[in-house]
Structures are given as structure tokens and as C-alpha cells.
Amino acid sequence: MPAKLLDGNLLAKKMRTEIAANAIILAAKGTKPGLAVILVGENPASQIYVRNKIKACQDTNIHSVLIQLPQNTSQAELLVQITKLNQDPQIHGILVQLPLPSHIDSHSVIEAIHPKKDVDGFHVANAGALMTGKPLFKPCTPYGCMALIESTDYPIRGARAVIIGASNIVGKPMAMLLLQAGATVTICNSKTRDLSFHSKEADILVVATGKPKMVSAQMVKPGAIVIDVGINRLPDGKLCGDVDFDEVKYVANWITPVPGGVGPMTITMLLQNTLEAAQHLHVRN
Ligand code: NAD
Fold it and tell me: Domains along the chain?
């Protein structure tokens, strides 16, 4: 029997309804959640991502500001914008769309965002706090993957989890979240020997490599939960993940599609983090 579909669109819709309701409640108490998105340059994919984020804010009663800067913006000019947003009481979350043009040091830019407004969860203060189990904000993509895994009701505690991919924005924070939920975690990377040996152990397999369809049915334990983070564009223009969905769906018990799996959850968790940032501020005031 084919795997059950872990439908990110469906879960995202349910969560966004709750976020929208909570945003109205908070606004009625005097704090309307606000997100600022900064886009530098004209990268077409980034323009689409940014548009989707602004639209998602509008749909969930979150105030949003889009700051579009030209490709030749200097790092100093960008840092001035971030300083202004750090001080703006109407803005609770700041997101700088990556990648930035090559003349700008992304690390310095992310470190300039106040950790209490770092709704992407990329600031070292949040990354470090995630290690100790107390992040202000969880990075959006792994946070969304956790929500999908939790929606299956499979007991994470004691499960074997394997993550293929060890990036700072997906693989590593994903490992921390699963570890904190009580899983026994293995992180694989491009140098891992005998990848199948590890992947076949996984009750929960998360794949984030950017390599189209690299995980085949033979690499998956029967009955596993398979979360495919990858977004790859094929020569025919279609999108596919890092997992061979058509094969693996006959081995796994649960599987995310691409598109419509992790993608919609990433934006949803950005909205959730912005709401939480505004709630924290409201409690402090
Ligand atoms: P990255 O390039 O920063 O990291 C890739 C990781 O995969 C590295 O740790 C690398 O060692 C590992 N890897 C590469 N080939 C491998 C192989 N053959 N075997 C084992 N490990 C291998 O990528 P990233 O930023 O983590 O993104 C990964 C994928 O997820 C991309 O397709 C990206 O577009 C997608 N992504 C999707 C979302 C979303 O919202 N759905 C968010 C972020 C990233």
C-alpha cells in the first residue's frame, strides 16, 4: 500500500488559521505583529519567495514591510536599514532574504539583526541557544519538519532519526530538534561512507541535500517517515525533491510530496515565529 501523504499545504492552512486568530487577539491588546523583509537585488527566485512571504503575512493579519534594495547596495547601507528595523517598535521580526550579492558578508548581516527579532533563527545567539534547548526562535524549515513529523503521532522519543545533509539552516538544527524530542540521531553528509547503511536504520528520515531524487527505495526502511526538504528544478521545468517519491512511497509509511510538503510549512513557521516575537514583546511591556 502506498505511503500516507504528509500534506504540508493542509497542515499549513490549519496552522495559519490559528496564527491569524492569535494575531487579531494580540492586535486587540495593542500589539499588531509586524515582519520586515529585506530583499537586495533582483534574483528571480528570491523575488518569488519574498512575494509569498508578504502575501502570507497579509492573509494572517500580520503587518509587513518589504524593503527592496538595488543589487549594488553596500553592506554599510544594508546594516543601516537593519539598525532602523531593530529600533522600530512596529517590527517584531526581521528577515533578510538569502542569498545576498557576493560583495556583502551574509554572516555580518545576520549578526546585526537583534536576536529578539531574528525570526529566521539564524543568528548565532539563537543557533547557540538551540544547542542548549532554549532557542528564542527555531529555524523555520526544521521547525516546519518537526510539525509535520508530530502530525503523524509517531513516537519521536526513542526513534532512530537519520538526517542526510548537515547545513546550518536545515540539517544541523533539524538534528538538535529531533535530539531534544528524544530521538537517537545520525547526521550524514557528502563524505559519509555507505549512506544506505545509515538511511535504512531510520524510523524518521529527513533529506536536505539539494540532489534531485538521490534517495531511492532501497535506501529506506519499510514503514519509515520520510521528510523531503529538497527543492530542485528539473530540465523540463518541473520541481522535484531529494527523494525519489514515486519509488519511495511504496516503502515508507508517511512521505512529504515536493512541492506541497515542507515548503508551505517553512513560511508558516516564519509567521509563527513573528507572532511569538510580538507575544514576547507584549508580555515584557
Ligand atoms: P546545502 O547545500 O547548504 O547543504 C547540503 C548538505 O547536503 C551538505 O551538508 C552536504 O554535505 C550534504 N550532501 C550533499 N550531497 C550529499 C550526498 N550525496 N550524500 C550525503 N549528503 C550530501 O543545502 P541546504 O541549504 O541545506 O538545502 C538543501 C536542499 O533543501 C536544497 O534543495 C534547498 O533548496 C532545499 N531547501 C528547502 C527549503 C524549504 O523550505 N523546503 C528550505 C531550505 C532549503
Answer: 31-117 (3.40.50.10860), 140-262 (3.40.50.720)
